[in-house]
Structure formats: C-alpha cells, structure tokens
Design brief:
The complex is a heterodimer.
Chain A lengths: L6 E4 L3 H13 L6 E4 L2 H8 L15 E5 L7 H9 L9 E5 L4 H10 L3 E4 L4 H18 L11
Parallel strand pairs in A: 1-2, 1-3, 3-4, 4-5
Helix pairs in contact in A: 1-5, 2-3, 3-4
Chain B lengths: L13 H4 L12 E2 L4 E5 L6 E5 L2 H5 L16 H13 L4 E7 L2 E10 L2 E8 L9 H16 L3 H16 L3 E7 L5 E8 L10 E2 L6 H9 L2 E4 L7 E4 L22 H10 L3 E9 L2 E10 L7 H46 L3 H7 L1 H6 L5 E6 L2 E6 L4 H11 L7 E3 L2 H4 L7 H4 L1 E6 L7 E6 L4 E6 L21 E6 L8 H67 L5 H32 L5 E3 L1 H11 L9 E5 L5 E3 L1 H18 L6 E9 L3 E8 L31 H11 L4 E6 L3 E9 L12
Parallel strand pairs in B: 22-24
Antiparallel strand pairs in B: 1-11, 2-3, 2-6, 3-11, 4-5, 5-6, 7-8, 7-13, 8-9, 10-12, 12-13, 14-15, 14-18, 16-17, 17-18, 19-20, 21-23, 24-25, 25-27, 26-27
Helix pairs in contact in B: 4-5, 4-8, 5-8, 8-14, 14-15, 15-18, 16-17, 17-18
Enzyme class (chain B): transferase
GO molecular function (chain B): ATP binding
Catalytic activity (chain B): ATP + protein L-histidine = ADP + protein N-phospho-L-histidine
C-alpha cells in the first residue's frame, strides 16, 4: 500500500475535528490527513491555489466533508467537485449532524458517494469512520452507492 | 316648438291628439277668453305680443311696439307695473283700474318679456284680503290637529270648497306608477261622488305632471270656452311661441277639455301637492257650471296647497325616519351577529327574525357559491337559484319589484311566495345574492271608469273615457310595496355584508400567511436543532469515551461517573433524534408504494439483533399481507413496535413475540403481541401520546416518543392504531392501513 493518497477532512467545529481525528487515529489508517477549516480552503486545496498553491499534485483518496461550513458550505463544495470533470471521480463522504431530508436529498442529487449522519454514540461514529476509511481510503475502489446512517 | 299645428284655435287635429304626451301644453299659443294677456318689454314697457281679445276685455288699444304709457286708460296699470318692476319680487297680483273698470292684474317675468294678465273683477269684494288670513289660520290649526293623512285631506277639501264654492272638491294622491287614489271629497251632491276611487296614470300625461310641479294652480273657468289666440304667434325675442307655463289664463289641451266634458264638469281648478320635489297629489275642484275664481281666492288656495305639501312632507319624513330608525336597529343587531358567525349563510339562518325584519319581508334566501339557505316563506331552492341567475348582474346594486310576474311573466308561478322581491348582490362575478320575498296580496281597486278604455284604439286619436262609473278590478301578482326606508335599509345592509365578506377574506389571507410563517419558523427551528443541539451531546459522549480509554486506571466510582455522563448525553441525543423524527413526519411527503411486509419484518428483526444479545426470544412471524404506504415510514412503525416488544419482554426468561397480519375488506391489519410486562388498560389512552411513559425510566429506557410516532405515521396513512394489555401477562399492538389499488408501485424493501 505504498503511495497512499491523503484524506481531506473538511470540518469547522474544533470539537468535531478533534473527535473525528481521534476516530481516524483509532482506525490506524496510514493515509495523511489534510484538514481544511472551511469550504473555501477545501476548494483551494483541491485546486492547488491560495495557501495550497505549492502542494504536490494529486487528488485526495477521499473527502470527508461537513455539511455546515463557513464561507462556502458543504453542499456548494460538493457541487463544485461533482460538477467538474477533472475532480468528479474523487469520492466525497458527507459528514453531518443533520437528519434533514432536504440536505440528504440534495446531497444525493449532487452526486455524493456516501452520507453519514454523525451518531451521538462515539463508538458508532468510530465504526462508521473505520468502515469509511477501509472502504475509501485503503481500497479506494470505484464507489458503489452505499449510504450510511440514513 | 315650431309646429304650425299649435294653432290658436280649438281645431282638434289628429296630429295634436296622436299622443297626449307629445302635446305642447306649455305653448298652446292661446288663452282662455275670460281675461286678456299681453307681453311687454321689461325696460320700455313696449308691447311685444297680446291676446286678440285685449281691447274687447280691457279697452286697451295697443299696437305691437307701442309703449304702455302712451296708451289711453293705462296710467294706473303702468305705474303699478313700474313699481313692481322697480322692486321686482316674484309675481305681481293687484286689483287696478283700467279706464273705469277694476281688474285683477297678474304679472310675471319670463325671458320672452313681462307677461301681464288682466281678469275683470265682477264685483268689488265686500271683504278685504284679511278674510283669507282667517281662513288660512283656521286651516293651519286643523292641519296641526289632524291625527292622520285622511284627516288632513278632509280638512283640505272642506276648506277649498268653502273658499271657492265649487260643487265638489277632491284630494287624491299618486302612487309609484302614477295612478291616483281619491283620499277625501267634499261635495254638495250636484256632481257624482268619486270617494275612494282610482284614476289611472294616463289621465294626467307626463308633461302635465312636470308642469304641475312648477305651476302649482290651474283654472278652467268654462270647459266650453273658445281659445283666444296670441298675436303675433312667435315671440319677437326668440321667434318661439310664447311660454305660458306660469300664466293663469293658459289655454289647456283640447283632450283635457274633452275629459272635463265627459266628466260632466263645466269648470275646474287643480292645485299641486308637491312633496320633496315630486308631484305627490292634487287638490281639485269642479262645478257643473262655468265658474270664475278670483285671483285672491286662487292665491289663498295656492297657499293651502303649499301648507298641505309642507305638512305631508314633514309627516312623511318623520314616518320615514321612524321606520329607518327601527330597521337600522335590526340591521345593527344582525350585522353584529354576522361578524361572529362561522359563515354568512349560517349567521343569517341563525338570526332569521332579524334577517326578515331588516326589510320586513315574509321570506329570505341567500345564494352563495351555488348553495341556498332560506328562511320564512320562500320559493323552492331551485326557483331561488333561477331567480338569482335572472337578477345577475345587478347593475344598480339593488333590485326591487312589487310584481315579479310583471317583470318576468314566466315567474308568475312564484307569485304565492315571491310577488315582491328585494335583492342585493354579494358578488360581481357570481350570481351570489341575498333575496327577500313578499307574497302576492290580492286587492280590489275601484277605478273611476275602466282605465283600459281610456284609449280608443280604432283610430290614432286619443279620447278620454266616456264613463266614469265605478269599475272594480282585482289586482293580482302584486305584493305590498317596499317602502323607501326598506329599500334604504337593504342598501345599507348590503354595505355591511360586503364589509363582513371582505373582512373574512382578509382574515383568511392573514391566517394562512401567519400559518405559513409559523411553519417556516418551525422548520428553521427544527433544522437548527438537528444541527446545533445534537452536536454538543455527541461531543460529550465522544470526549467521555476518549477519556475512559485514556484513563484506564480510574477507580470504580469515577468510572461510574464517566459512564453516567456518557449515558445521559446519549439519552439526550436520542431524545433529540426522536423528536426530530416526530416533527419531520408532518413535513415528510408520503411516497407510497407496495411494501412487502414479510421482507420488511425480517429486515427489522435483523436490525434488532444487538438488543437481543443474550436473550431467548421465540419469534412467531406469520404470512403478512402486502401493505400500501411509504416504505421508510412503515419500517419505522414496525421497528418501534418490535423494539418495544423486545424491550418489555427483557424480564422474561423465555420471551415470545409474534407478528401477524390479516386482510380485511378495505384495510390490512397487523398485530404485534408479546408476553412482556404489559400495561393496565386504564392507561391505554395515554400510551400513544408524546412523552407518555408507563414505566419508570430505570426500568426501561426510552424517550416516550416511539408509540406517538407509530400513531402519527399510521394516521397519516389513513389507518388506525389500538392496544390491549394485561399487567404481567403481555401486550398487543395493532395497526391497520387502508388498501390501495396497486398500479406501478415497486417493492422498495428487499
């Protein structure tokens, strides 16, 4: 498993960020984890511009994208990724607090690969992240349409 | 008027008689010959026109253009006219000498010049003008004391006959159509009595009625008179015939003369009763023989007419005001009641007495959106609808008739309930309206001769009827007339009702606006809860977990505390999730399809396996009929019911849970039964309420929303829920779902 591509985690809430990183750490994934704190920064990373202008080329293995984000929100980021032929193949997993149907429906309309409603139970969250990590970060196979937590 | 047919003679041409209404009664071109008339220039008093009998009657020999002061015998007359013209107040009436004879001199100014009329005075009156004041004062006292209109009418005819000495005096009033009814009569028996009889409107043509409003007194001294022409015929001022509207000597229509002759009267006088600008009635006097009434007496009679007019007007106004007051009181009460009513028709129907009373009708109906509500004596609903259609659109904003059959002969069949109809529109687009009805009131009317015989249709000539013998007629298809106050009340009520309708529409719009805003707010609220309220609970659980992993050497009590923190946050988090699920249900669009309940039940049972770890549960799942509904929601129902069954059998060593289904006529029914702790039937109604729990929290965990959710989902599908239980024995929960015809639905679960 050489040359593992990084995971892009887009999360603004510091506690969610910390807990997600802890969960990812527990999964003992070998991938680097790049953190973007808002939608604009995530897009800068993907398009290698702004503070990420100098990063080495290459797409992340998966984008873990929070729905509610400052500046450019998660749905807009998703829309840009999936609307761009050169980035469309990057798997995007929506991580969200929301059980709102319209968010879910909208995400699937925009072509999200998975939708995870962050469970209150940390162990369940950990299991979800672990599954995701295995599925997307390591195997990185073409995305079957599987939804979590819905 | 330029017709040469208005020749100053009594040659009755067919053209003249073709229609009385076309007859130029103001400009007959002639006068009655018992006096003489001439027209003067108001500045120079030069002669412009004169009746051909001027010299014969007065002895004044004048040529056109000749000045009055240059005319022999005219000295006193000239001074008198100069004085009057200098002061000019209204009409001149004086007795003056012309030569050595006394004349009543009348003068009035017109655009064509000053018209001077001279009537010879037969004898110097033995009494001065003061005597008239005595008469008039007496008359005023009688008027004031009269308890009703009949008494006023009687006093009037008595007074006028006493003043004039006519054989018979009459007072009659006109109804809305113009027919006259004799209200009072005073007679010495020489002429036949007309007491209580009616005269058809055609007896007084339209243009005569108009003239009578302005010229309040007319006199025909001798019905057999030969009109005396005025020469030149055309006024030198404007080339038109002389306007004699206000001349006392004006020659009358040959038809009228014929009418008098047929009535057997040789002389007549009539005085207008004008109330609120309209010809209300007439006081008339007749004698068999020709009779002269001098100017002073006529003046007194004119005053009597005016005083009577004023009294009637005052009386009518006070009657009208009292009527309006009473109707307004009813209207105010009705409108107040209507604004509280659930709907306009309901409100009216609930206050039928006021509804009828507001215009004093016998029946009423409201037509709204094609629905009819009625009160009192009304036509059938179908006929009411026909009538509403017929009246639509009501351009004047009101419709009133005393005789519906008169307007629409085909509706004569409604006459028993609706001879009189009063209606107000409620909409400009639809035939919505409020109608009031009055039944037919058959009356017998005594006509003074058959009114239908007034016109001899053998020729184009119009003749008055020859017989004035009483002729009875039964008037059908007529209701009691709507009074002005009643019609005004209907108009005022229309305004109030339209306000009620408008306010209702506004309230409705406002309410739906408020609801929409409230819904939006609620949605925003629950959206924000789902994002923001869940997160802290999740964080607490996460950090507690991480802390527990890190501090492996915590003492037992500390571990207990940490576990409690985690459990509490978890419970709170689940509560938020359940509440959200419950509130989302209202907004969730049902996406119905066929649901394979057997597959669904198996899937739900599998998902419950973590809860069943270490338990011994005997599942009995029968063959379940297919359901029609929203699959994800039906899944929620099954999940909650089966989860409860697992939960509440936790204390059983051997738990039994069954799920059965049956197909009924219109529904399918499913029942989940268990041998768990059960419940007391006394609490069955509480079971399906939000946050209702029948067990203590430490016994069984749960938010208390599960069954409320089940009930709400099932009811949104049009189904029902029920429960049976026995404490310590078990519980049974059932729900039904309506069947639907399966068309293109696809099973989603599986």
């Amino acid at each position: 498993m050489a040359d593992l591509r990084p995971i892009l985690l887009v999360e603004d809430n510091p506690r969610d960020l910390e807990l997600t990183l802890a969960a990812l750490a527990k999964c003992q994934l070998a991938n680097d984890i790049v953190v973007a704190r808002d939608g604009a920064e995530a897009l800068d990373y993907l398009y290698r511009r702004g503070i990420h202008a100098d990063r080495p080329p290459g797409d992340p293995a998966v984008v873990l994208l929070d729905l509610k984000l400052p500046k450019v929100d998660g749905l807009e980021v998703l829309e840009q990724i999936k609307g761009d032929a050169s980035h469309r193949q990057i798997p995007v997993v929506m991580l969200t607090s929301s059980r709102e149907e319209r968010d879910l429906t909208r995400s699937y309309e925009l072509g999200v690969n998975a939708f995870v409603v962050k469970p209150v139970d940390f162990n369940a969250f950990f299991e979800a992240i672990q599954d995701l990590g295995m599925f997307w970060a390591i195997l990185n196979e073409p995305p079957p349409r599987v939804g979590y937590g819905i | 008027m330029t017709s040469p047919q208005t020749a100053p003679n009594n040659e009755v041409t067919p053209e003249l008689l073709a229609g009385c209404a076309a007859e130029p009664i103001r400009i007959p071109g002639a006068i009655q010959p018992h006096g003489a008339l001439f027209v003067l220039d108001p500045e120079t008093l030069a002669l412009r026109q004169a009746s051909t009998n001027l010299a014969a009657v007065t002895g004044l020999e004048m040529m056109p253009g000749q000045l009055l002061q240059d005319t022999p015998h005219a000295g006193a007359l000239c001074r008198c006219l100069r004085r009057w013209l200098g002061g000019r107040s209204g009409v001149l009436l004086r007795t003056e000498l012309i030569g050595i004879e006394l004349f009543d001199i009348l003068a009035h100014a017109t655009p064509q010049g000053v018209i001077v009329e001279c009537e010879p005075v037969d004898a110097v009156p033995s009494e001065g003008p003061e005597v008239f004041y005595t008469y008039i004062r007496r008359f005023l006292d009688q008027l004031a004391a009269a308890p009703d209109l009949a008494a006023m009418a009687r006093a009037t005819v008595d007074e006028v006959r006493a003043l004039t000495g006519f054989n018979r005096t009459l007072l009659y009033s006109f109804d809305r159509i113009g027919d006259g009814t004799v209200l009072a009569e005073d007679t010495d028996g020489v002429l036949p009595s007309y007491r209580g009889q009616r005269f058809p409107a055609a007896d007084i043509p339209k243009q005569a009625r108009e003239l009578y409003v302005n010229n309040r007194l007319r006199l025909i001294v001798d019905a057999g008179y030969v009109p005396c022409p005025i020469e030149p015929m055309a006024s030198p001022v404007d080339g038109r015939p002389l306007d004699l509207s206000y001349a006392a000597l004006r020659s009358v229509s040959p038809v009228h003369v014929e009418y008098m002759q047929n009535m057997g009267t040789g002389s007549s006088m009539s005085i207008s009763i004008v109330v609120e600008g309209e010809l209300w009635g007439l006081i008339s006097g007749h004698s068999r023989a020709p009779r002269r009434i001098n100017a002073q007496t006529r003046n007194a009679c004119g005053m009597i007419g005016q005083m009577l007019s004023l009294h009637i007007e005052a009386r009518q106004k006070s009657v009208h005001a009292a009527e309006r007051l009473e109707l307004t009181r009813i209207e105010t009460e009705l409108v107040a009641a209507l604004s509280d009513a659930t709907s306009l028709p309901e409100g009216l129907a609930a206050h039928r007495e006021d509804w009828l009373g507001v215009v004093r009708a016998d029946g009423a109906a409201i037509v709204m959106d094609g629905v009819v509500k009625q009160a009192g004596r009304t036509p059938a609903v179908s006929d009411t609808l026909i009538l509403a259609e017929r009246l639509h659109p009501m351009d004047d904003g009101i419709y009133a008739t005393d005789s519906l059959a008169g307007e629409w002969p085909d509706l004569a069949r409604l006459t028993g309930e609706a001879s009189g109809v009063l209606a107000i529109p409620l909409s400009q687009i639809r035939p919505d309206c409020i109608l009031w009805f009055r039944p037919e009131q058959v009356r017998t009317v005594e006509w003074a001769g058959d009114p239908a015989k007034a016109i001899d249709d053998g020729t184009t000539r119009l003749h008055p009827r020859h017989s004035f013998a009483a002729w009875s007629e039964q008037v059908r298809d007529h209701a009691r007339s709507w009074t002005r106050a009643e019609i005004e009340s209907a108009i005022s009520f229309r305004g109030a009702v339209q306000n009620v309708i408008l306010r209702r529409a506004e309230e409705k719009a406002e309410l739906s606006g408020r609801l929409e805003r409230a819904n939006k707010e609620l949605e925003a609220f629950s959206y924000s809860i789902s994002h923001d309220l869940r997160a802290p609970f999740r964080h607490i659980v996460g950090y507690a977990e991480l802390l527990g992993e890190r501090e492996t050497a915590l003492e037992t009590t500390s571990q207990h505390y940490l576990a409690s923190i985690k459990d509490s946050a978890l419970a709170a988090g689940r509560l938020v999730d359940d509440l959200l699920a419950f509130s989302q249900l209202g907004r969730h669009q049902l996406q119905s399809g066929t649901v394979d309940m057997n597959k669904l039940a198996a899937e739900v049972r599998r998902s419950l396996e973590p809860d069943m770890a270490g338990r011994s549960i005997a599942w009995e799942i029968g063959a379940l009929p297919t359901a029609w509904g929203d699959p994800s929601m039906i899944r929620q129902v099954l999940l909650n019911l089966l989860q409860n069954a697992v939960k509440y059998t936790a204390t059983r060593e051997q738990a039994r849970i069954s799920l059965d289904g049956t197909e009924l006529a219109d529904t399918v029914a499913y029942t989940v039964a268990d041998n768990g702790v059960g419940f007391e039937m006394a609490y069955v109604r509480k079971l399906f309420g939000v946050f209702q729990r029948l067990h203590r929290a430490e016994e069984f965990e749960g938010s208390g929303i599960g069954l409320a959710l089940v009930k709400r989902i099932v009811e949104r599908h049009g189904g029902t829920v029920s429960a049976k239980g026995t404490p310590g024995v078990g519980a049974e929960f059932s729900f039904t779902l309506p069947k639907r015809q399966v068309s293109h639905g696809v099973p989603i679960i599986g």
